[in-house]
């Protein structure tokens, strides 16, 4: 599989992202060692110019990584036509132990890169560049993730053999109590939906508090934003679980077709695209607002923080509601109207 065109495209994307990361990390090390905003030396001027280069590299790297994640999913769909037992990307990604971790690393690096760009925008909006050192540390922390992502992609492709017998999504995401493999390890569909509804209500309430109490004391802001920052990953994972086991069967009209990836194909794209778009924008905006608020409590600086937190909180709350409405509409319509 390593010589397939899909494989070559994926490895190329990973290599480009890693090269961008290495250049950015090298610049970050120089910034941490020599950064002195009070100096007007030639070195300091060059370092300030390099900030824009690093930002450009991160933004291009983020675009390439998003493209790589999309390619990875569609490549897995293609591999499903070769692997025995696989009927969609879910079967291909579970054909060995590297597929799902590779996809997870791609998503983590996309979120991390997006958060870095948010912090960068606030940093350059202030005259004293308050978050420059923090950005450098964050970029250095992202480099192992980028390298790990590239290694996992290569390991996945190298260990992907046509002779491998894998399973379909109906078994992989089946109900364990009914004899399914249950990769998600859920006890019942109702439990997953209830958990998502609960954490959604808590996140909406917390985001509302964060929105209306922008000028609150630092300690209160840290508690609220810290709770939100830790809740968004759980919301994201639960949302993906609900899409897989509860929403997708109603979209397909088949009770045992539980694939989160086929939603990105025609004719299901009209449901899948807004569903995933609302989810990812909600999580990104919510994480951004919480993360930036926490940073501003620790490092005083940008005067644009309050405005950013307000806007991001509003966006995240709106997207959560749209996601819940979109996810709930298909099962509701199926039961009310008796079909698709």
Overview of the molecule:
- With 340 residues, the chain is mainly alpha-helical.
- It has two domains: 1-167; 168-340, no CATH class.
- The protein has ten helices and no strands.
- The protein has helices at residues 5-34, 42-79, 89-93, 99-124, 132-158, 169-172, 189-212, 218-252, 269-298, 305-337.
- α1 (5-34) runs antiparallel to α5 (132-158), α7 (189-212) runs antiparallel to α10 and α8 runs parallel beside α10 (305-337).
- The model has no long low-confidence stretch (mean pLDDT 85).
N-to-C CA distance: 37 Å
- Mean model confidence by pLDDT: 85
How many domains, in number, for the residues?
Answer: 2
What is the overall silhouette? flat
Sequence of secondary-structure elements? HHHHHHHHHH
Low-confidence stretches: none
Residues in helices, as a percent range = over 70%
Percent strand: under 5%
Tally the beta strands. Answer: 0
Main sheet characteristics: none
Query: Rg from C-alpha positions?
Result: 22 Å
Q: Counting H and I runs of at least 4 residues, what is the number of helices? A: 10
Broad structural category:
mainly alpha
Topology:
Blueprint: H1 5-34, H2 42-79, H3 89-93, H4 99-124, H5 132-158, H6 169-172, H7 189-212, H8 218-252, H9 269-298, H10 305-337
Structure keywords:
single chain; 340 residues; mainly alpha; 2 domains; 10 helices
Give the structure's gist in a few sentences.
By secondary structure, this protein is an all-alpha fold. The protein is built from 10 helices and no strands. The protein has 2 domains: 1-167; 168-340, no CATH class.
């Amino acid at each position: 599989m390593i010589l397939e065109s899909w494989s070559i495209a994926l490895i190329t994307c990973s290599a480009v992202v890693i090269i961008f990361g290495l250049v950015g990390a090298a610049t970050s090390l120089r910034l941490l060692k020599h950064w002195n905003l009070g100096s007007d030396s030639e070195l300091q001027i060059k370092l300030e110019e390099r900030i824009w280069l690093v930002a450009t590299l991160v933004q291009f790297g983020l675009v390439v990584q998003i493209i790589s994640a999309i390619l990875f999913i569609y490549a897995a769909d293609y591999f499903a036509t070769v692997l025995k037992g696989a009927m969609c990307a879910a079967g291909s990604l579970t054909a060995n132990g590297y597929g799902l971790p590779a996809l997870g690393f791609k998503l983590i690096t996309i979120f991390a890169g997006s958060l870095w760009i948010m912090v960068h925008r606030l940093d350059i909006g202030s005259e004293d560049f308050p978050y420059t050192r923090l950005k450098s540390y964050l970029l250095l922390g992202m480099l192992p993730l980028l390298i790990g992502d590239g290694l996992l992609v290569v390991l996945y492709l190298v260990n992907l053999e046509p002779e491998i017998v894998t399973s379909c999504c109906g078994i992989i995401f089946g109900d364990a109590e009914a004899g399914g493999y249950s990769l998600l390890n859920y006890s019942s569909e109702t439990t997953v939906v209830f958990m998502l509804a609960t954490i959604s209500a808590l996140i909406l309430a917390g985001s509302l508090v964060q929105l209306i109490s922008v000028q609150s004391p630092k300690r209160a802001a840290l508690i609220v934003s810290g709770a939100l920052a830790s809740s968004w990953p759980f919301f994201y994972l639960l949302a993906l679980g609900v899409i897989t086991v509860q929403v997708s069967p109603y979209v397909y009209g088949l009770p045992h077709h539980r694939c989160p990836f086929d939603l990105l194909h025609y004719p299901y794209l009209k449901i899948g695209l807004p569903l995933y778009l609302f989810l990812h924008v909600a999580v990104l905006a919510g994480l951004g607002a919480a993360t930036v608020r926490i940073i501003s409590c620790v490092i005083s600086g940008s005067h644009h923080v309050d405005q950013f937190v307000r806007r991001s909180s509003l966006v995240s709350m709106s997207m959560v509601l749209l996601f819940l409405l979109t996810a709930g509409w298909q099962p509701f319509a199926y039961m009310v109207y008796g079909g698709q």
